[in-house]
Amino acid sequence: MQVPISVKQIVAFTKRDAISWASYKTAAVISIINILVAVLSWGIGASFVNKPVTIMYDTDYISFLFVSVAIGSMLMPLVQGVSQLNPWTLETIMMTGVNTSVFILGQIMWTYIFSLITFVPYVFIGIFFFHVNLNMNIIAVILSFIISAAILLGLAMISTGLRIVTKSTDPVTYVLNTLQSLFSGSVFPVIYLDVILFPGASLISWFLPQTWVYHLCRLSMLSNPSLLDPAFWLAIVAGAIFAVILFPFGYKIFTWGLNRSKKEGTLGWF
Q1: What's the pTM?
Q2: How far is CA 165 from the centre of its chain?
């Protein structure tokens, strides 16, 4: 049975990036050292402020933060692959004749593999040295990661499609990322916004798609939700609504930006 050419191309991209990373031995060693330092820094810092996070997930703070690390290692590389399709690379890609989806997969594959490899020390050190407590429902984790990936890919395609046209940072992504840093619950439960800012402030969080990425992943990895619990399915449906809207809308914005730049002859401008 012959291997499809698209698979060979993806493997070739992955091999190229892996060889490129390994060829710079000093940089490779430094990156590994940085990973170990980051793991220890994360663990020590979280242990220092470790407190119960019982309001939403019935866990502790170090476990709460660990899910953010998991999201960064297992979901963000997908976003990075789409983000690499910018005015500086798209024209070259189209000249090669390589399918855009193949190029995206090829670009993210080594980054994703390396992220999974670097995630292993976080798991090992987090569980055995800093006592991270994971209470997962595997089916819930799979559903949460699929929905979260669709949300993040949709946002990435919106950003990329607008950047192809504007040749700079798009205002939509800028506003969302700015709000995310405070309201998405990446480093603290969103419910605490009612205490820190003003009563009802956490309601803003639930209108941000990134909030549902963190919430669904933490719900499935920390609280072992029952598949018979209506509250769990309500959260899944709410996150899925964002995913169903953002993914096709993001693809539409991306194709719109690409076609407009091709029509105007500005695809390779920056």
Answers
A1: 0.80
A2: 24
